[in-house]
Every structure is written in C-alpha cells, then in structure tokens.
Amino acid sequence: MTARLRIHFAALLLALSACASPPAVHFYTLQPAAPALDGASAPVEAAPFFIALQTLSIPIRLDQPQLSVRQGERLVMLETERWAGPLDEELRAAFSAALTEQLATQDLSGLPLRASKPVMRIQLQVRRLDAWLGKVVEFEADWSLSFVGEATPALNCHSRFSEPAAAGYGGMVQAVQRSVVATAQQIAQDARRWAQSRNAACTPP
C-alpha cells in the first residue's frame, strides 16, 4: 500500500469513526437553582409546624430515566434527553425545596421526629405528567396531610395544573418545575389553614 493510499485509508477510518459516535446525552434536573440573595423578596411567615415529606409515588410509565413527550396518542421516550436522577427522587427533592420555602419550615424526612413543634406528614402521589413539546405540560397529583401522633383523619386533596411550555426540552422541564411550585403553593396554603382548623377543606383543583 502506498503512502498516499494509507493516508486516504486512515482518513476514511476517521470519518467512519466520527459517524459512528453516539449522540450526546443531555441531563435535566427539577431541583431549583439557589435563589439570588437580593433582599427584595418579602419574608414568609414561618409555619407553626415542621413537615415530613414522604417517599413520592409516580406511575410506572413515568418511572424511566428518559424524558417523555406526547405525540398524539403515543408516548415517546427520548433516549438522549434524560433526568439527572430517578424521576421520583427529582420530584421529591423539588417538592421539598418548594414546600420548605413556602412554609418557611424544615423537612424532617429521614430524621428523628422528636421535634419542638408538631410535624405534618405530607404524602404525594403523582397521577399525571404529560408533556407536549413546545406546547404544554399537564400535571396532576393526589396528596394528603396528617400530623404525626395525632388521631385526626388525614386531609386528602387533589391538584391539577396546566403550564405552557416554551420551545425545546429545557422549556418543557421548566414547565414541569412551575407545575411543582404551583402544586406546592396549594399544599402550603391548605396546610396552614388545616393546621389552624381541622375542619378546613381542600382548595378546589
């Protein structure tokens, strides 16, 4: 093989190798970035209780590392667009951050529950998380509130939100984040009212 042929052969191998390279995988998280400490936000009154956010449940079809989008009646899994961690853990961490901010309290999940204030147990079950790329995200969840060590029946509620999604996968993830925050706001409002009066009802979804 001549030198020129060897050069052409090496160039061909490099080109084929480049074509065979797997596409880049992108990872997304639902956990919010640290807020800017600009002092502009009004302080939130601390709730008279701690919370204990339980393990979050999601439908089996959503329990996947890939992002999924709706295309008509089809649910398409996106191999190169993935969650940074298991989706149930991503959602739980996002809800914990949003709820502790809304209630100005601590999440004692996983810690001893011997606390100086009552501890409200929050159970969340995601019923629906459907996304249409560049259009909308539909989010539904059931949730319940109960106080640790208290015999009062739990408050069982339902939330449903529809968030517009900007173009791209990043826009879709941001719409999911806003759905989490909106659901957390509803939970926090009902939690404050229910802590004051066990006769308080759920906010209509």
From TrEMBL:
The keyword Aminoacyl-tRNA synthetase does not apply. InterPro entries: ABC_trans_aux. The keyword Signal applies. Residues 1-20 form the signal peptide. Keywords: Signal. Residues 28-188 form the ABC-type transport auxiliary lipoprotein component domain. This is PqiC family protein. It comes from Uliginosibacterium sediminicola.
